């Protein structure tokens, strides 16, 4: 990402800074410019809300518990290891 | 173990399991409890397999890498000093092994990770302001579109990502590692980690926008 100029941010720049913003990686100055843009831009505010919702939905994905066969298989691995095989 | 395409992996809601739990499991494992090992495998095997799949193309090789990792974990469990979390330690061992296996597999297809824009440029006017702005997603989006459809959409988008990107998004946003832990596991600089995360998250949002927009 190119260094930010001091001019106000435009929407197309804001969407590229969303991750740095959410990850707390913007400098204090850039964070202020980002938030200033949001304050006056309902579209980018909606975009940020969409991104937060995306993260919430993604965070709900989690693999299922191990199947009984796999539990069995790993029991075997453990026992082989214990017996020094 | 049967080979399931990544995007068909079953998913359910997050189980409650915490760091305290891990510490207790580790103690039980050191004391020689088989059940503790099986529980540990149950907790992390899928995350490890998914991460392995981002390094190697073949599901069978990925499974081998994960199994080897578990054996390495058993051998090394007494040396684990708790400087990082148990999960980070496991995933780092896995990533190191998978990287080697991936190199051995000699991938001919490069990781095309093109510098795509977060949002297609045609949606902005010449000044960089939205010309086709995003909509407000209403609160009941899960009810309207269906949680299953949304989940499927996310899985498909994850499956279509370049491997590195997928690894970062899954570790950070699905498995919930901190960004410094993701960097440790994947040997990435913080800046690189954020670039990959940004591209991945942008793709996920776009995928959901396509689905939700089509349903409204």
In short:
The complex is a heterodimer of chains A (85) and B (216). Chain A has helices at 11-22, 28-40, 42-59, 68-82, and one strand at residues 62-63. Chain A is mostly helical and 85 residues long.
Structure, explained:
The complex is a heterodimer of chains A (85) and B (216). Chain A is 68% helix and 2% strand. With 85 residues, chain A is mainly α. Chain A has a single domain (11-82), classed as Anti-sigma factor, zinc-finger domain (Arc Repressor Mutant, subunit A). Chain A starts with 10 loop residues before the first helix and ends with a helix. The model of chain A has no long low-confidence stretch (mean pLDDT 82). Helix content of chain B is 62%, strand content 1%. In chain B, helix 6 packs across helix 9 (190-215). Classes of the chains: A mainly alpha (85), B mainly alpha (216). At the A-B interface, helix 1, helix 3, strand 1 and helix 4 of A face strand 1, helix 2, helix 3, helix 6 and helix 7 of B. Strand 1 (62-63) of chain A pairs antiparallel with strand 1 (11-12) of chain B.
Keywords for this entry:
heterodimer, A: 85 residues, mainly alpha, Arc Repressor Mutant, subunit A, 4 helices, elongated, B: 216 residues, Rna Polymerase Sigma Factor, Chain: A, 2 domains, 9 helices, 62% helix, disordered N terminus
How far the N terminus sits from the C terminus of chain A, by CA atoms, comes to: 52 Å
Structural class of chain B: mainly alpha
CATH superfamily of the largest domain in chain B, by name, is RNA polymerase sigma factor, region 2, helix turn helix motif
The level of helicity of chain B is 55-70%
**Average pLDDT of chain A:** 82
Fraction of residues in helix of chain A: 55-70%
CATH hierarchy: architecture of the largest domain in chain B = Orthogonal Bundle
Strand fraction band of chain A?
under 5%
Q: Indicate how many domains the architecture of chain A comprises.
A: 1
Would you list the SSEs of chain A in sequence order as H and E? HHHEH
Computed CA radius of gyration of chain A, to the nearest angstrom: 23 Å
Largest sheet of chain A: none
Total domains of chain B = 2
